[in-house]
Amino acid sequence: MSTKRIYNFNAGPAVLPLEVLEEIRSGFMEFGGMSIFEISHRSKKFGAILEETENLVVELMGVPKNYRVLFLQGGASLQFAMVPMNLMDKTADYALTGSWSKKALAEAKVVGAPRAAFSSEETKFSRTPASSEIDMGRDSSYLHITSNNTIYGTQYHAFPETGDVPLVADMSSDILSRAVDVSRFGLIYAGAQKNLGPAGVTLVAIREDLAGRNYRGLPAMLRYSTHVENNSLYNTPPVFAIYAVGLVLKWLKRQGGVAKMEQVNSRKAALIYDVLDRSTFYRSHADKQSRSFMNVVFTLPSDELTSKFIAKAEENDMAGLKGHRSVGGIRASIYNAFPMDGVEALAQFMREFERTR
Ligand SMILES: *Cc1c(COP(=O)(O)O)cnc(C)c1O
């Protein structure tokens, strides 16, 4: 079977470690005469996989004892709804730093009367706020932030201070890419398909007391308490996706864990930002202090040059560089599993393209 790999800069689903893909291929049928697709979610084998995966999340993220780790379905998009349904009494605050946080706010509006406590929309979401810029309302049930803005290429490098008000974060595109003090958050969620594994599972870490909030009647599947009480086994969980996440986490641990990942990720991002900073041809979308280490977004002087850049990059085995339609330009997504040599290749290509275009 072919294992020719190209450099995959897609924003999500995104690149996974080759080692993990090969483990999935070789282990696929090795579940006692069955494949991973065919085993029961109530089997001992899957029970062990679920427990190990949960323990790895706890270990790698440093999840404190009074939190529960859940594996849910419906993507980060269902969390946009579950968070307000479960945690919002009358109102909550949302920091708007891009399309995903706007979607999260829109879902909260279905449930109650949330507020936009900050927005950088005027500057095309070029930055994340400082704590002092977030105008929290009274009676707020929580503050919701998007830790990394996948489309606009911005990231919080310091998290807001919220006192007793729980901080809720959508970490879909930077989970486990850097050390984070989980105890600062009431709830963290992340769709798996950027930094954790294949699509189909969503990781949630929730402080136990918040899982007990109960402001309105909700169907069982939409209550955090249901999934806490049933240890993510209320109904059939996405068995394969959880298995794959477990393999990715073991890979991450072999790489040296989150602290090591953070070092490597900042070096990777610096290689591309360095090209941007030395150039008058490319323009970084994000303000300097808000630059994302996961999604580097930049523009070229014209749409024509942008198309040419993308086409030439593809000829050089670099795929997925087209920016999101709301920003245009180029987006290089360089998640944990994206290799250093691919970033070096892109930086080299960018310098050459600027010279020879
Ligand atoms: C991709 C993404 C989402 C959407 O995730 P789904 O799993 O497709 O619902 C939400 N938030 C952020 C920050 C993302 O990057």
Structural features, described:
The protein is α/β, with parallel strands linked by helices and 357 residues long. It has two domains: 18-254, 3-Layer(aba) Sandwich (Aspartate Aminotransferase, domain 2); 257-356, Aspartate Aminotransferase, domain 1 (Alpha-Beta Complex). It contains ten helices and 14 strands. The two termini are 37 Å apart. The mean pLDDT is 97. Residues 12, 75-77, 100, 146, 150, 170, 172-173, 191, 194 line the site of pyridoxal-5'-phosphate. Residues 12, 75-77, 100, 146, 150, 170, 172-173, 191, 194 line the site of pyridoxal-5'-phosphate (PLP).
Record the SSE blueprint.
Blueprint: E1 7-8, H1 18-27, H2 44-61, E2 67-72, H3 75-87, E3 91-96, H4 99-111, E4 115-119, E5 140-146, E6 148-149, E7 154-155, E8 167-170, E9 187-191, E10 202-207, H5 208-211, H6 224-229, H7 239-254, H8 257-277, E11 283-284, E12 295-299, H9 303-315, E13 318-319, E14 330-333, H10 340-356
Parallel strand pairs: 1-13, 3-4, 3-5, 5-8, 8-9
Antiparallel strand pairs: 2-10, 6-7, 9-10, 11-12, 12-14
Bound molecules: pyridoxal-5'-phosphate.
CATH class of the largest domain: Alpha Beta
Small ligands present: pyridoxal-5'-phosphate
Q: If you average the pLDDT, what whole number results?
A: 97
Q: Percent of residues in helical segments?
A: 25-40%
Measured on Cα atoms, how large is the radius of gyration?
21 Å
Strand content: 15-25%
Q: Number of helical segments? A: 10
CATH architecture designation of the largest domain = 3-Layer(aba) Sandwich
Outline type: globular
Q: Give the low-confidence spans.
A: none
Task: State the fourth-level CATH superfamily of the largest domain.
Answer: Type I PLP-dependent aspartate aminotransferase-like (Major domain)
Report the biggest beta sheet as strand number plus sense, adding barrel if it closes. Answer: 7 strands, mixed
Q: Structural class of the secondary structure composition?
A: alpha/beta
The total domain count is: 2
